[in-house]
Amino acid sequence: MNTDAKTHETTVTWTDPAEGLSHLPTLDGVDFLKKMASGEFPGAPIGAHFGMKLVEVDNGTVTFECNPDESHYNPIGMVHGGLVCTLLDSALGCAAHSTLPAGSGYTSIELKVSYLRPVTSDSGPLRCTGRVVKPGRRVVFSEGEVVDNKGKTVATASSSLLVFPLETS
């Protein structure tokens, strides 16, 4: 290893999600997510790792923003596809959640991502919108896209999500 190489450091700080999660069984999905977007409830800790922020919530649609930086790079100097995939998985999942009644949870069954152009630290902020295309009591189908700071689509995705009752203790 080159000991003269410049090193960088990043710190990840997040808020314990327990406060918001304690309300999850009593709030429908759209109300829960709106409280998260407003800051009344903390965001998901994964968002802190990637710098993702939930910025818009409506019934059946959500939007996240993310500012990629060099700490997200893969070995060839581009933002790793995993960041873009995580952004899409979050938006499509939360779009599904926004249609669910209180006491319901969800998990991804399938996620198909199509990468359309490379992303670098200069591409941000990225804006990712997820939309429900078919709601359901057992399975929800959603789709979405990520656009860069020039409005160009960098990736699209479709997802199916399993809906289940939350266990209460």
- Summed up, the domain count is 1
Structural class: alpha+beta
Count of individual helical segments: 4
Give a short account of the largest sheet: 6 strands, antiparallel
| Mean pLDDT value | 94
Taken as a percent bin, the fraction of beta residues is 25-35%
Radius of gyration: 17 Å
CATH fold-type name: Thiol Ester Dehydrase, Chain A
CATH class: Alpha Beta
Pattern of helices and strands: HHHEEHEEEE
What fraction, in percent, of the residue positions are helical?
10-25%
Write down how many β-strands occur, each being a DSSP E stretch of 2 or more residues. Answer: 6
Name the features.
169 residues, alpha+beta, Thiol Ester Dehydrase, Chain A, 6-stranded antiparallel sheet, 4 helices, 22% helix, 33% strand
Structural description of this entry:
This protein is α+β, with helices and mostly antiparallel strands. It has a six-stranded antiparallel β-sheet with strand order 1-2-4-5-6-3. The longest helix is centred in the middle third of the chain and has 17 residues, at 81-97. A hairpin with a 5-residue loop joins strand 5 (139-147) and strand 6. Helix content is 22%, strand content 33%. The termini are far apart. The chain has four helices and six strands, in the order αααββαββββ. It is globular, with a radius of gyration of 17 Å. The chain has one domain: Hotdog Thioesterase (Thiol Ester Dehydrase, Chain A), CATH 3.10.129. The mean pLDDT is 94.
